[in-house]
Hints:
The complex is a heterodimer. By secondary structure, chain A is an alpha+beta fold.
Amino acid sequence: MTKTTELTPLWEVFIRPRNGLHHRHVGSLHAADSEMALQSARDVYTRRGEGNSIWVVRSSDIAASDPSFAEANFEPSDDKIYRHPTFYEIPDEVGHM
Amino acid sequence: MASADNTGADIAFPAILEIADDCLILGHRLSEWCGHAPMLEEELALANMGLDLLGQARALYAYAGEIEARGRSEDDLAFLRREREYRNCLLVERRNGDFAATMLRQLYFAAFMQPFWRTIAQTSSDETLRGIAAKAEKEMAYHLRHSGEWVIRMGDGTAESASRMTEAAEELHRYTGELFMASPARVAAIAANLLPDPESLRAEWDQTIATVFDAAKLSLPEIRVMQKGGRDGNHGEDMGHLLAELQFMQRAYPGQSW
Lengths: 97, 258
């Protein structure tokens, strides 16, 4: 299926569930260009009223961190629990954060 | 449904049935793609469009049944009539053919139905029809966009896709004239201000198709004689096969439901 993938490369799909919330990655699909990717995303990922906005981006345009560098990247933060805001008392008036 | 009282079963019922049949038969054709679409994305897109049309058909059959007032339900109207009693235009019953033909048929139909529903929503004397139309117009706007984008990409695509789209246009264009012909039922409904005159929508349809064909680098086939007959119940050979499958369950197990 090399040819199919060349003509219709992979796209990552992001849906915003409701006004005010951020776009979330929901999956991927094949499409020839951004217009068709948006239409397919509408058909594949918003059939049950999941969202009111769609982003698509070519999968090949996403730069990803190197899995083999994961320890160096992420382990140093494991023992720095003071970075979590769990030690603070949040006044009720602040509401949802 | 007081709004239909002045027009009655004689005018509104047959006129609404024509539209309902268009929606049901094309919706069924699209459902035949289930499991056969060229890619997963289109599998869902075709099913979505088919379900839109079935939803429109259901609303129209239910309303037509109320107007007729002989106790026929939407299922009775959809499943238990004979071939000659279906009044859909020939375009919608044409076989799916390849993906190019299916998308072009959808474009031809949606380019008519979107302004058709929009006009009903704005001008029909019937409140129920205005409500059905307001919802259906948005659905057909999407069908028009989706099929149009595909026709452009296939027409202006590879040599193979362009030749298939050209063949589809040569095969299907002759069935588009019937969209603009008003049957006696439609003429009465136009006079009662239930439905718009299809002829008044022709300029917009021509413009839509010309724009898509131009972008797709396709030429409009020259058709001398437009095919017609569906509105009189004179269908093509494929219609019987379609109905055999569509009606099988209700014929074999009368009254069966989910």
